[in-house]
Design brief:
The chain is α+β, with helices and mostly antiparallel strands and 148 residues long. It has 5 helices and 4 strands, in the order αααββαββα.
């Protein structure tokens, strides 16, 4: 409802954007919830545990054995499109105590990798490039990419 009101002229919330602190307080897990996720990862043997400032992402490094223990899944190696890859064979599972906090377990495979929009610079003279009339640059959140 908030998103609808945010973009509806006449709504009291029209263009009343949340600050990062307001967003975190309303939508991010609490410090206690994040601490329980971190404790689970640490107990399972993960290292390099990092919590994003907005508390929406926790990243960590671990071995295949660590992943098996923490998420009750197994990683397998296989060949895909001519390259050696790995992926989990079953859906990752988390304990009930943190199940309501963890939205997804990502990064257990390298079959499909995320890519940046970075590319090489055009070669040659680019001073005569023109931008089509009506073209615009707009920001996008990564969660929107599947619908663009």
């Amino acid at each position: 409802q908030y998103l609808h009101d945010l973009h509806t002229p006449g709504s009291p919330h029209y263009r009343q954007f949340l600050t990062p602190a307001q967003f975190s307080s309303q939508y991010a897990p609490t410090d206690q919830q994040v601490a329980s996720v971190v404790a689970h990862l640490r107990k399972a043997g993960f290292v390099n545990i990092v919590v994003a400032p907005n508390r929406l992402l926790v990243s960590a490094s671990g071995t295949a054995a660590t992943i098996k223990s923490a998420f009750r899944t197994t990683l397998k190696r296989f060949t895909h499109n001519g390259r050696s890859v790995y992926a989990n064979t079953d859906a990752a599972q988390v304990p009930n105590a943190i199940g309501g906090v963890v939205g997804a377990v990502l990064g257990l495979q390298n079959v499909e990798l995320m890519h940046t929009g970075a590319g090489s610079r055009p070669q040659g003279n680019t001073s005569n490039l023109t931008i089509p009339a009506g073209a615009s640059a707009v920001p996008h959140n990564p969660t929107e990419f599947s619908s663009l």
